[in-house]
């Protein structure tokens, strides 16, 4: 049948359908029969309904079009779905990377052998290719594999680590095409505001996972002795592999580097992140020199909480107790001795070891500070020239 005959047949069928569309049961049966005859007439050529074409048998039609109204563009999401969280993830998500390191051990012959791989997360923050992550993600490694959000895997080099703050910086080849995240102001955070964690929990199979919660608390401490600064607490789920990923606000700014989670039976929703304001200075030092150089006083001290933790009675008002003075340290050049109490530095009262460390961290090697201490019940002021901390005290 040629095209002219087909058009005539379709026209006749259309007229018959009009006459019977509101008719009897037999009329409706005629419609079904006519429709069947149309399919038979169409044969292998297919049956056409506007712009949509059923594919030919044995092959796909090149004229297939999506049904009208279908739209996959994210920017066309309705406002109720295109939330602040969606916008923040679109902005920061591409800058989150996976970091894979090789794990080594010693065999029975004391040879270094690879026993597996460790996977963590990182945040691209500079188009030169700099990535901030956790120290424990890259510890012991010089070269790492970096998995980008576009699916590519590139070689990265560890440029600096700081075990004291659990921060590290990795570098890959930079380019103008690299997606980078913007740092926010962690000092402006409010308890209860939205918190978004982005990372690679449990490995690269779940790369770019997004979890949402709130800022649960600020200025949290997990270890008063060794912790360099206070942490952000969030109930956004943070699991192994999230380490080094980003904690993000609803306006798409990175305010923390996810670092630790309390993982105990019966404990849920307690994740922690390093405040980005505290991390910025560390990151800059790691980029410029590969390490962090801290001011060094040279005393081993205890405060009331530490003393009680180890079963010692504390009968002093304020200050920290000098337990030991390191040899050839700045304090060793003064009259401060074990048994004395350090009461203040530069006029700022001290009640905890953490407080003393916080003050020292605002100084650099070569600074002179005034130390007020108590010796045999008598207050004394002395000047101390701060030195660079030995590697073991960093």
UniProtKB/TrEMBL annotation:
UniProt feature, compositional bias: Basic and acidic residues: 1-22
Biological processes annotated in GO: proteolysis
A GO MF term: serine-type endopeptidase activity
SMART domains, per the entry: PDZ
UniProt keyword annotation of Membrane present: yes
Top-level taxon in the UniProt lineage: Bacteria
Cleavable signal peptide: none
PDZ domain residues: 286-356
The keyword ATP-binding belongs to this UniProt entry's keyword annotation: no
Gene3D superfamilies: 2.30.42.10, Trypsin-like serine proteases
Transmembrane segments: 31-54
Region (Disordered): 1-24
Record keywords: Hydrolase, Membrane, Protease, Transmembrane, Transmembrane helix
One Pfam family here: PDZ_2
Coiled coil: none
Protein family membership: Belongs to the peptidase S1C family.
Protein name, as recorded: PDZ domain-containing protein
Source organism of this protein record: Dialister succinatiphilus YIT 11850
Highest classification ranks of the organism: Bacteria, Bacillati, Bacillota, Negativicutes, Veillonellales
